[in-house]
Amino acid sequence: MVSNSDSGGRASNERKGPIGKVWLVGAGPGDPDLLTLRAARLLLNAGLVVHDGLVDPSIMAMARPGARLVSVAKSRSRHTMRQEEINALLVSEALAGHDVVRLKGGDPFIFGRGGEEAEACKAAGVPVEVVPGITSALGAAAAAQIPLTHRDHASIVSFVAGQCKGLSDQDWSGLAGKGRTLVIFMGVATAGDISDKLMADGLAPDVPVAVVEKATRDDMRVLRGPLAGLADLVESERVQSPALIVIGHVTAEADNTIRALALEAVQ
């Protein structure tokens, strides 16, 4: 178990003995070599790890032998636990005196619901610390050699959740276009809606797009095409999560070797 000497918090006078601490830890985009040193140390010493389904098995294998591993995996159609239940789990374990590593793919505060979990812990008087991770957008861009900013192409980057509510009611006209890069998380299932929405809000159908599937992992694929063909690309290549969609002229910088290998893999 993570040492209580690093927990920084004790129970109120209404409780007997110390309470635990919750660490919201970013596991990065997949490759275990991209973990921060602090994340690796916490994982190695943790007695309880509450983890997402997107955390790579090679990272979970770094957990301390005998540690209690609790999966709270989520998918579009099925959740092991609702977010409210996850919040309650973290709080109850900490109040019971356990130190908890809450391990999340990417970074806890980039579409990781880390803010909600931190709020729940603080409301219950549980000390919480956030350990940042390499967000999947940065990991995917680096692995595919797509510069999200480029002096000739883009000086603005936007991150958007592709599963956001009320997609048709939002104005996306300023998110992509000349001088801009748009990175869409969790957009595989709604790729057709996303491309239709962007074109309806003024983006040209021939704007280049890249789909980076399983970024930084051995089976990573980088697929490219025009915005108008995004839905067909995702469907024909049977793209699966985790995958990110990058929209903008910077996608032309994607490494040709990676792209060629990706196309060979699906032929």
TrEMBL record:
Residue intervals of the Tetrapyrrole methylase domain: 21-230
UniProt keyword Transferase, yes or no: yes
Gene3D superfamilies: Cobalt-precorrin-4 Transmethylase, Domain 1, Methyltransferase, Cobalt-precorrin-4 Transmethylase, Domain 2
Example of a GO MF term: uroporphyrin-III C-methyltransferase activity
InterPro entries: 4pyrrol_Mease (IPR000878), 4pyrrol_Methylase_sf (IPR035996), 4pyrrole_Mease_sub1 (IPR014777), 4pyrrole_Mease_sub2 (IPR014776), CobA/CysG_C (IPR006366), Siro_Cobalamin_biosynth (IPR050161), Uropor_MeTrfase_CS (IPR003043)
CDD domains: SUMT
GO biological-process terms attached to the record: methylation; siroheme biosynthetic process
UniProt xrefs under SUPFAM superfamilies: Tetrapyrrole methylase (SSF53790)
Catalytic activity, EC: 2.1.1.107
Keyword Transferase set for record: yes
Pathway this chain belongs to: Porphyrin-containing compound metabolism; siroheme biosynthesis; precorrin-2 from uroporphyrinogen III: step 1/1
Keywords from the UniProt entry: Methyltransferase, Porphyrin biosynthesis, S-adenosyl-L-methionine, Transferase
Family affiliation: Belongs to the precorrin methyltransferase family.
PANTHER family in UniProt: S-ADENOSYL-L-METHIONINE-DEPENDENT UROPORPHYRINOGEN III METHYLTRANSFERASE, CHLOROPLASTIC, SIROHEME SYNTHASE-RELATED
Protein name listed in UniProt: uroporphyrinogen-III C-methyltransferase
Organism this protein belongs to: Novosphingobium barchaimii LL02
